Amino acid sequence: MLRRPAPVFRAPGRRLLAALLPAVVLAGLTVSGDGRTGTVPSPTEAGPLTVATWNMCGVLRWNCAGTGDRDAKREQMERLATESGARVMLLQETCAADVQAVRDALGPSWHSAFRPYTRRGSDGQRSTVRCGASGGGDAGYALLSAYPLTDVRTVSSPQPDTGVRRGILCAFVAAYDVTVCTAHLTPHVGEGTPAQRDFRGDQLKALADAVPERRTVYGGDLNVDPPGEHNPDSWVWPERPYGTHRECDQGSARATHDSLHKLDHLFTGLPPTGCRVIDTGVSDHRALVIEVDSRAG
Predict the structure, then answer these.
(1) Does residue 8 lie in a domain region?
(2) What is the pTM for the complete model shown?
(3) Which CATH number fits the domain that encloses residue 228?
(4) What is the mean pLDDT of the chain?
(5) What's the total number of domains in the chain?
(6) Residue 35 pLDDT > 50, yes or no?
(7) For a disulfide at 264, which of 43, 79, 225, 256, Cβ 3.0-4.6 Å?
């Protein structure tokens, strides 16, 4: 009796995978920017949205010596999730290894996206900025989310020709139907910038232009005080922040930095329901935490 040869299994090609992925998403699963998969609840099931922004002061040589070790900073990042209820964190001056460690500690449902700071020398050579601490890896800015991050993208913005280049990182959180962006803007006076122009105005415009009119929460360490008669740099602010979009602490403008300036901001087009400034004790920046009604139409 003749036997047919056993069928040979072949891994699906890219075209087949591309065809299958929409079906996976429709089934309630999605692939996050970090390659993890996760279940995507509806905005109603996910509940209210709490977002935190925090400059962790993780690059010790950036005036961060004496602000706490990496273990203490990781513990405070975890507490923003477990005690303050943050479902999304916008992070600056963090270490790649610490973002990954906290993501793993919070559980398999958490996802992250990270971009390193780069440095360009006068000779045109580029390199990433290292955290300096053993095992910390690159220093950069990041998103950490309790739900999958999709459409992860770096937003183009003008940067200094030489010195440290910071940036803007955005993603979509389907669980809340919200676009989130973390930003770290170039200070007017700092490494590589005194002889160059003020980049903050163009960088703020790039940030504001990267988000939708309503369903968004964005911000970070913007290195500028809120607009107003006492701020000579008010001209850098475009219309959307503090105008179309409401800031977490709009009207109060509590200080978020040891210098007693408000450098950290969170904006949203959704109805805000609360705002907290939290001193973690391990950074020169306070964490800023906003609560929004993500179920609003």
Answers:
(1) no
(2) 0.87
(3) 3.60.10.10
(4) 88
(5) 1
(6) yes
(7) 256
